[in-house]
Recover the amino acids of this structure.
């Protein structure tokens, strides 16, 4: 059998002037000539390390463990930085820049001499942006995730990101002082790693493990646990073999792999952001996937992992109880067991020996943590292209509810009015926020689980139906309808809701309707004036021009699909 020439040899295997230029400057790093001779696969390490992305701030260290594995297996590692999106700091929202980061990743991989790539992902958007970008190039690739931080401790209690929403309510009610709030900050974030609950970061790490893009246990080993470095080392060793076996992303990312990921997301009570990111990845790799798939495949699966925000514990605890392989084993009769993964084994083989060590953490199909999980996809005259709700994070008796709309025209209107004692609202009302969709904000921020009015919190109200075209943090909870599509800023029906209208939510029947006549609807539609979007230059201008809607993954229309890994022109 003839050995396939490595892609990197299109650069380093050249003679004459071209070869000189491609190799010479690399040698200023002290790299000996034999590394360029084509025997060692060049492995790119796509690193999202940044001190502004604290969830990934340990990645320099983790990359060293990864390199050790690559060297040991006979590869040649070359690390490169890409745009890193820190969820907690970026304004107006990291989601605005997910597509930009994915373009950085895609072009960095395609333009450079690498045979395979390891994607170092952690904080929420760093996973989808890297996977989307790499999928559009389609070379052998693996994901190495950050791992969750250790669970926080505050006043004798375990805490994590989901507690921020509870603290915020206590602060509003005067039960928690500013000094206590500051104390809780350090108590919550006491180790390296990403958010401790099954927020979006952990959801994304579970997604890549379920898709088969990462080694088993990638999703749950804590960042501070030495076994995270072992995993990095093993990932480094394996990517070299993956290149030799020439297994590309498109061979892993099949329709069956996507269906597995949807089922696993339901089993762990994963974030609603999963829908947007998985849809975008599917469209990059050319797999058909739409909103109804999320409802169909997740409806078979109850909540198996007892992890916040849907359950009680933390991702760290889930690792000690058996990790994601043990969760997947509980639902294996539903999974496509023959889906190939990056370690060369199938999902079925990877989970065959997984064991559960703690039934408080991992339920079974017969005795789940909660009977309903996954994603409910709603349709109706308020959301012709769909809206979503996470039943496991909602209040059961609000899942069928009709209430009077209290409308906030945008986030500023909400902030100005929500705590006004004269706001005409009670706990039966439906809170509606407009203009927080992909174009309206812009960037579709995580404001959909808008806080309840202070006067209702004082009465002990814990949850209300809330509807918006925005997103919700993966650590958030409540009876919250999100991702209403099309969004209000472009004339979606949400734009026509007025104070006092009645809205009917029926999750079992998957409907969301504004209870006004068709004539009234038309009258309001004719009078609609689109929101003025005050961005005239730069990336945000491109975003507003090219972004698609929530049900399509909020990607740019021109980024869907793959351009492959070939570069036809040379640089000199
Ligand atoms: Fe980075 Fe939560 S802020 S994962």
């Amino acid at each position: 059998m003839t050995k396939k020439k490595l892609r990197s040899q299109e650069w380093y295997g050249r003679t004459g002037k071209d070869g000189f230029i491609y190799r010479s400057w690399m040698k200023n790093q002290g790299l000996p000539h034999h590394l360029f001779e084509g025997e060692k696969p060049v492995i790119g390490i796509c690193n999202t390390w940044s001190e502004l992305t604290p969830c990934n701030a340990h990645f320099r260290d983790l990359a060293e463990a990864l390199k050790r594995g690559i060297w040991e297996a006979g590869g040649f590692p070359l690390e490169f930085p890409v745009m890193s999106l820190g969820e907690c700091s970026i304004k107006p929202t990291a989601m605005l820049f997910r597509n930009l980061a994915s373009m950085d990743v895609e072009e960095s991989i395609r333009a450079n001499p690498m045979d395979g790539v390891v994607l170092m992902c952690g904080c929420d958007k760093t996973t989808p942006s890297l996977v989307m970008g790499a999928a559009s190039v389609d070379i052998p690739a693996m994901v190495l995730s950050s791992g969750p931080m250790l669970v926080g401790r505050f006043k004798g209690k375990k805490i994590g990101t989901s507690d921020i929403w509870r603290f915020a309510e206590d602060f509003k009610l005067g039960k928690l002082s500013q000094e206590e709030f500051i104390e809780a900050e350090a108590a919550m974030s006491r180790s390296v790693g990403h958010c401790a609950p099954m927020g979006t970061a952990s959801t994304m790490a579970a997604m890549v493990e379920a898709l088969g893009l990462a080694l088993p246990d990638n999703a749950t080993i804590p960042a501070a646990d030495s076994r995270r470095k072992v995993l990095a080392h093993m990932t480094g060793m394996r990517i070299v073999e993956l290149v030799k076996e020439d297994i590309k992303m498109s061979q892993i990312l099949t329709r069956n792999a996507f269906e597995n990921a949807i089922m696993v997301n339901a089993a762990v009570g994963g974030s609603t952001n999963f829908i947007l990111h998985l849809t975008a990845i599917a469209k990059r790799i050319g797999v058909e996937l739409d909103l109804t798939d999320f409802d169909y495949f997740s409806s078979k699966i109850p909540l198996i992992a007892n992890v916040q925000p849907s359950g009680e514990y933390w991702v760290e605890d889930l690792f000690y109880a058996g990790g994601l392989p043990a969760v997947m084993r509980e639902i294996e009769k539903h999974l496509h067991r023959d889906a190939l993964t990056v370690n060369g084994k199938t999902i079925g083989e990877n989970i065959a020996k997984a064991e559960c060590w703690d039934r408080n953490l991992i339920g079974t199909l017969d005795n789940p943590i909660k009977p309903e999980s996954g994603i409910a996809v709603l349709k109706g005259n308020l959301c012709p292209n769909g809206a979503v709700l996470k039943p496991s994070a909602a209040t059961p008796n609000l899942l069928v509810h009709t209430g009077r709309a209290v409308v906030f025209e945008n986030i500023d209107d909400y902030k100005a009015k929500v705590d006004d004692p004269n706001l005409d609202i009670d706990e039966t009302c439906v809170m509606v926020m407009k203009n927080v969709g992909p174009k309206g904000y812009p960037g579709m921020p995580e404001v959909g689980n808008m806080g309840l009015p202070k006067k209702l919190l004082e009465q002990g109200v814990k949850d209300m139906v809330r509807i918006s075209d925005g997103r919700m943090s993966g650590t958030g909870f409540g009876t919250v309808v999100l991702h209403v599509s099309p969004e209000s800023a472009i004339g979606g029906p949400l734009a026509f809701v007025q104070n006092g209208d009645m809205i009917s939510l029926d999750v079992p029947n998957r409907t969301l309707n504004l209870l006004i006549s068709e004539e009234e609807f038309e009258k309001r539609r004719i009078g609609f004036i689109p929101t003025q979007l005050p961005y005239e230059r730069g990336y945000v201008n491109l975003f507003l021009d090219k972004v698609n809607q929530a049900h399509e993954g909020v990607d740019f229309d021109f980024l869907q699909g793959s351009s492959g890994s070939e570069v036809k022109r040379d640089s000199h």
User: Anything to note?
Assistant: The longest helix spans residues 226-245.
